[in-house]
Amino acid sequence: MSSDAMPDRSAMAAELALGLLEGAERAEALRLMLADPGFAAEVDAWRSRIAPLYDGFPEIDAPAGLMNRIEGLIDAELAVEPGSSVVAPLPAKESGGGWKMATFAASAIAAVLALALVWPRPEVAPVPQARPDMAVAQLTGPIDGLLLTARYDSSTSEMLVRVEGMPVTDTEPELWIVPADGQPRRLGRLMRGGVTRIEIPEGHRKFIDPLSNLILTMEPKVLPDPDKPSAPTVAQGRLQRI
Fold first, then answer.
1. pTM of the predicted model, to two decimals?
2. Cα-flanking dihedrals φ and ψ of residue 149, to 5°?
3. In angstroms, rounded to a whole number, what is the distance separating the alpha carbons of residues 16 and 11?
4. Backbone angles phi, psi at 125, to 5 degrees
5. All domains of the chain, ordered by start, with CATH?
6. pLDDT of residue 70
7. What is an example of a Pfam family matching this protein (predicted)?
8. Phi/psi zone of residue 17: left (φ > 0), alpha (ψ -120 to 50 degrees), beta?
């Protein structure tokens, strides 16, 4: 990922904690965690905020050898490219007055550095970086183990929804947004696991705000009425802008 395409750090930290990043974006965020303690602290802060949602879930031991595989992947990322050198070659010995010239050059460089430290620097006003408008939500409910995490990006008008713990039923998961007026609007059908990408209809994008809830219902394969749910809500969560 190039620096021009990198999203806001806070947004990236929230998405990593929510488990919404995949592929190259996830790898970039994990590398940033290792290199930047401030970014790692942001991820930990987000994880602390969502930790209470997992209190009712039983702990599961990690598979044997997982840490060794993780360390192997990190070592592969940090490996030095073949043929590259990290040690500068020593200069060849010079005869005669060569050492005098080297001493003079070193003194000149030291003087320039000293001037740079004391010379007043012009103040440059920081330029705020534009970032896409994003919102996230977590949906939980009475079904044990069911958890949904959603991320909306206004720059693409897409919402990514990750589904975990969906039970096997004869009905299909349907996502709705309920704005302040209390009237549900259909966003689309979700896969029963993994990440579903939904393009938000233009008329529904204005409802992406902190006054809106996302809800999940389990509907028949053919919706009786596409404009309103026909089944009770099984998971819900409020949108938060980041």
1. 0.51
2. -125, 135
3. 9
4. -70, 130
5. 9-78 (no CATH), 134-241 (2.60.40)
6. 74
7. RskA_C
8. alpha
Does residue 151 carry a pLDDT above 60?
Answer: yes
> If we measure between CA atoms, which residue out of 144, 162, 165 comes closest to residue 19?
162
Residue 175 near residue 188 (C-beta atoms within 8 A): yes
Longest dimension (CA), the chain: 96
pLDDT digits (tens, 9 = 90+) for 61-82: 667 777 777 777 766 655 655 5
Collect all residues with Cβ–Cβ distance below 8 Å to 136 and sequence separation of at least 6.
Answer: 14, 15, 18, 20, 149, 150, 151, 152, 239, 240, 242
